Records
---
Amino acid sequence: MARKPLQFQLNGRHQAVFTDDGQNLLDLLRRGVGDLTPKYGCGQGTCGTCTVLIDGEPHLSCLTLAETVDGRQITTTAGLAEGAELHPLQTAFMDNFAAQCGYCTPGMLLAAKALLDRNPSPTREEVVEAISGNICRCTGYEPIINAILDAAGRRNQRRYG
Amino acid sequence: MALHRGRGFAAINYPIGMNLGGDPSQALVHSNPGGKFMVALSSIDLGQGMKSVTRQIAAETLGVPVEDVYVDTADSDTGPHCMGSFASRGTHRVGNAVIEAAREARAVMLEAAAEELEVDPGDLVTDGQGNIHVKGAPSRTITTAEACAAAQFRQGRTVSGRGIFLIPLSEVDPETGEQTPVSCFAHAAMIVEVEVDDETGEVAVLEMNSAYELGRALNPKLVEQQLVGGAWMGMSHAAWETTEPYYPDRDHGPIDFNSYLMPGPGDIAPHSIAVLERPAPDGPYGGKGPGEMCANPVLPAVANAVFNAVGVRIDELPITPEKVLRGIRANGGARPQGRP
């Protein structure tokens, strides 16, 4: 099996790794790089917990061939906090009790980040649409939707405050 | 075709824990080298809040800040014996075991503090901020960490405690058939509003209103979180989830998350909840816990609402469009029952 060198930015840091033929991005991030924040759920692109951002757009890393991310910017949940300071979305998830078992949370956070980065003041419907590819078994979604709207409000406050 | 609104009601008396062979849980509490406390359990936190609630209970009983308590729910290799996290038993059974363990550890901590302060342990109180002082004389004081360090380095005591809470096996009386399988009940009532499409058979849950009585809500936000999330699961069980929805062949059934249906974030129904707090006499600080009953009343309430909407009585879950349509056809059309 051929191994291929690969370079990309992971949460703002340069990464140079080898990838195996056919390896998916989730496997590369978890086993190759050691970033365990993207979760393995269904492995077939339906649960959303492996979501990562590639050049700011949400992608299902379990369905993304690793070699396609050469030269691109990848964001995972590990890149959300700045030092000890949590990302506003993470704080809002905590304040709104938007996680129970927590397995969907990394995907939810990144789907939400992609939304807020392009639409800082989403409607409730837009939030629902943004997370519609992510399955949650515990919360009933309501606290997650509220958390994202809450984070949007905070971001706006900070921007104009 | 028409859309029919219906309203359904369900009430529930729900057993906390179970009693098929006795229902015990154990807890161990000890001070650690950092001057804080560890609660060792085998009751796993599945996201329902086991760690948060037992941490609160231990801190309250020990008389220390909640930040000074860690909970380790590692596994059955390292923790004490526990039946597990199921049957809505966690808060009640494990919470009571934690209280007993924390009381024993607190007693040793106060004895150690008493020896250092040269007073009677019965005269000591904790302030919940990490200090122990003589009742009525706050200047005669020692921190909980100092007391535990004195126990370790000078007095040779273990600041630790063991706790077990056991609901013993209730045998069936051979004469009367009587038994006490459950000693603690929680209660709830729920009203659900649905809309049924008589052409497609689809059921949409529009609104849920519920009242829950589950003892003292030891952590009200966690209780609310459980009730909101559990009702979603109940709605999913009532009208969505099954491995065999597709007539006529089993092979048409779902094999993955693409075809196994659950309500998504766009399908949720507004849910208003009233929590009534009636502390349980045998509960830890009066708590019973929400547990499984978060989901259960939704199912009969939806079934009743469907009957109210189109006159079809469905007694096999989930209430799929196929079952609704068959029922409507068997009745010769939708038969709305009117507003209850």
---
Amino acid sequence: MRKEYGALVVGAGISGIRAALDLAVSGHKVALVDRRPHHGGLLAQLDHQFPSDNCGMCKMLPLMARDSSSQYCLRKGLYHDNIDIWLNTELTGLEGDPGQFQASLTRRSTLVDPARCISCGECAAVCPVQVPNEFNAGLSERGAVYLPVPHAIPNHYVVDLEHCTRCWKCFEACPTGAIDFKLDQRDGFRVLAVTPDSTEAQELLSLLDKAGFPAVFALDQEKALDLLADGDPAGLLLVDMSMGEGVVERIINRAAELRPELPVVLLAGAGESDAAARFVDPEESPAGGGPRGAREWIAKPLEEAVFIPWLDKLHVRLASDEHLVFDVGAVILAGGFDCHDPGPVDDVLGYGRYPGVVTALEFERMLSSSGPTGGRLVRADGKPVRRIAWIQCVGSRDLQKGAGWCSSICCMFSVKEALLAKKALGDEVEATIFFMDMRTFGKDFQRYRERAENEEGVRFVRARPHSVITDWQGGLNVGWFGDDGRQHEDGFDMVVLAVGARPPKGVDKLARAAGVELNEHGFVATRPLAPARTSRHGVFAAGAFAAPRDIAESVIMAGAAAQGAARMIKIHDVLAGMQREEEPEYPDVSREEPRVLVAVCSSCPTLEQRLDLDRLFDRLERLHSVVSVARVGSACTAEGWGEVERLAREEKPNRILIGACMPYAYVPRLKELGRTVGLNPALMDVVDIYTPTFPGEEGPDAAGRREREVYAALATAVARLEGADPVPPPVTVNVARAALVVGGGVAGMTAAVAVADHGYEVCLVEKEEELGGMCMRLYSTLEGGDPRKHMEDLITQVEKHPNITVFKDSRVVLSQGTAGRFRTAMYTPRGALRFEHGVTILASGGRESKVYDYGFKVHKSVMTQLRLEEALATGTLDVSELQRVVMIQCWRSRDEERNYCSRVCCSQALKNILALKARNPGLEIVVFYRDMMAYGFKEAFYTQARRAGALFVRYEPERKPKVGFDGGKPVVTGLDPVLGREVQVRADLLVLSSGVEPAETDELVEIFGVETNRDGFFQEAESKWRPVDFLKQGIYLCGLAHSPMDMAEAIASAQAAAQRALRILNAETIARETVVAQVRHSLCSLCQRCVTACPYGARQVDLEHGRIVVDEILCQGCGSCAAVCPNSATVLTGYHDGPVMALIDAALEEPRHVETPKEREQ
Amino acid sequence: MNGNRNDPAAELREYMAACMQCGTCSASCPNAEFMDVSPRRLWRLAQLDRMDDVLASRTFWMCSSCYSCMLRCPRGLPTTRAMQALKRLAAQQGAAGARRGQAFCRAFTENVERYGRVQEGALMNTYLRRRANPALALSYVPLGWKLLRRGKLHLLPGSGHKGRLAPLVNKVREMEARS
């Protein structure tokens, strides 16, 4: 199959979804593929995210043109007009150049036809196989035919062929014939075997005969090739390796010419397996790139018990799997990560050996209500859990386990899990977290940790437990070494291993297929100052595939990757996405009496077997608005749908209700139906009537309950349709297709260029006289980037860009309007200016904090890290003269005044240490620190700095190091917790890590009506799912104004913000959504509760007219206002009190006994 | 031991530079309670270049080379080897406490060299004689009695393995002389 897309996104986890949505909402067609049978990646398994401790993934759903996308839980399903999701699909090759890639993919069939599967579960009930269920991290079991995630919509069973025992019971049990093992095609699957040995041929023949496949034999290559040349319809070529490598190679090559799609399998005897393996995977051969062409190889002698199942499965695969070719403009790799496996069983932590030792993922599955224990926290042996320990850095920061990196996420998820445990089990649960450094480097992480420690009573112990030992009662003893110089031991009921991130399994294969390089840690290599770019032009990396990252950062990186891909698509003018269709005008039926047509799909036998349809129809017909109830066959097929259309034309209803399975599948069809019969799709609905009829509880009431449920589903839908509001003519805003960027630092400039490259006008306002901001003070980065050159190039690019106008020494004074059309006044050296723009990006940046103590600004020997970097780069500091340098981290940050981690200082210190050590290896460096925030791959540089001889001395905030001066030279005294003694260091230089502060934002907050957090950084709409959006639509944030971040992260956030902004700019008009709130002014008492309740800032008081005004573009139809309104003055379209009450009545209606026509006859 | 021969302290520092003071070694050590300075503190002292304090401690003499620490060190540092290096260094430099610390090691080596296996009676005899401390000898009496009763202590040397390990020990001596 060949298809065209703007972009291909590999991996449908959180980053893949974010990147795909970002591209889809700005009008590009996207193929989203995942090798797993479900979307959502790891997050499909996780119910709780901090800081809110719930999920919230739905906040990523499009805010505009909401009808084009699914609007329910994103973990359950994703549907968007512009996104095609291909599951069980893997990228196998990528040819061509950016803008015109040809991606080859293999789609492994699930062997269940999703159009037919009604998810009744009959197949799983008969499956004899029991294997660990991946979804529950192996804590429960599943069959070989199973639901990959229990909550997905649509949710179809899939067959796991690897574990299938070929009993075909599910095939027989399926009531709809959805499972297809291609058993009817076996006769046509002819095996052509080439073997020189006639006895072997005889044996093979009898095996094939038993398996039931026709076969033809050739004793030599000529015969075989002649057969193929004559058009033999063989479906498989078996080649015996005993003919010699040369002959085998000839056969394979010639067969590839004659029948390119014919699969070849090699039969390898003893000693021939290496050669056979080289034919299968040329990379296996020592020289690389050997002969290729075989699908796989099997060992001789062939055993019946192995060969027949293998051949059966091979046949099913060959007959069912698909090869896909996509023409795409750009590729985004979002392969995610795997969790470290803390096995083997004899490991010191006792995972897999002691009940009660679990991984963090298993722990979260236990807490989930869809998990193996239904949300109860119990040990595998049933013992209650009261004392829980978390052990950090399991498989991270551990060179012995091959992980020289920090996994970045475990500290925070452990704190979250500790709080969840407290919530689940109550306060009597004791939670202890064992850690080495608590890496709370993200926005608001430090406060979250402190809340856990001080308010919730989570115990934090700084130690690395060496092992877990069980006692005779099954308790778990954890031993560690304390700061007091003693060994300690404590007993727990459960030990949670905070397992780290690993590159996903098969990353090397994917990297090879996509033609990108991996870094030394095995993750995808990206460029130091272009964090979304891989080694191959046009191929981008998103999320944790390039480095361990949490959700917020993955979402930002996905935005950056989407921006890169969008730029590729724009440059190469790849297939413009969907053609925006004219919204058809529908007749206004609001004045007509509701006439509902009910069509019930009765194609699947389960319905009629378990339900009295006649009685149901009879009852439905009695509803006053129902004009006709009809039975249609297979609404899911074109004929069935044609039937619905015919009925609609005949009956001329003004509401249509369809009872079928899987309502979500009908959304696009309803639109089409509306167009053909001239009825607004908002007046149509599809409800699920099949689920209540699935096998489940039996009993005397079961039938009655089933009937009640189906009737209630249909009756509520009728009530809803009756009360549906007429849709008023759409309100649209003509978009001013230009952007205002405030701040000319690296983030502002990157965002400006990203928007301007799409052909939109950009106005960049910088308050200083020069562009560049903080990054101008950087001379190198830890990862080896060249910030100077990057900034020089960027400034030139910005200043010369035809679409960018730069105003230096200028400021914004006023801004009005809403998303799509803002009017802003600026004060510039050229005088006051006005600018109309559709979006605003705030990148006002930050600065190095200045705290005047420790002799800073008094003694020349005291400087900040940035100043040291400058002195090192410009050569004003003679390093060879120095004997000893002291650095103090967290100088006045992570303390009450500025209680957040500045994130960049630890890497800045490491960078300076390595620079100092490179010039003067004998130089002594002592670093006083609290927690080294060497997250991700920065950990490797921390190791490098220690190897180079730098000494790291930890201090507690209660006992900060003291600084005195002796002859102008600093003398630093601090307590070394390891020695338990004071150490005094006389240094030539004292370097302070002073941290990052946001720039003054008071004015911007007022002008743009945005908010800041308590530390003065801008407050994003949602810290995880919408990290670069403000709540107010059309305004975005990036760079240091968001939170402390390094240069590469600032660049990524700017690209992500630009991509979000492009969504508005790419549209000529923005239409109001169908569900918005309105105010009935006659009832409104102007109490203004709704104004504060509105999370989107869509409400204002119009003092002149004395009324509440709703900005219908900003309104997202959440209904918060309607809920708080004491007078019911605020209403939500389609959710007026009356219809909602009617709907509830219909749902709860006790059915009266109605005589069926049959009964009447009797 | 290879590396910087001129400055044994530098060699030790090089071994332990990448240590991040997690304490796994000290927590794992079965003999930690007999050590005056914990292994973690020992590495710290070495990093701080306080070799006098390092050599004065009896920590490394208490190391029984069980390799638990080395196996568990997340940084993969050669902790046990560093302990052994310290023993050699202390012996070479004749550091305070070295004589005492060495006494058992030497007695043990001589014992197995001679008898080909441990001959408990002769071993304790040599060791206690060298330490020349009657109080120490007396303190072993209860343990000795217990072992004797259980047949774990052989007072008279057996002859089956005599001299078997001598070539091995000679080889070590040869190697030590060469380097």
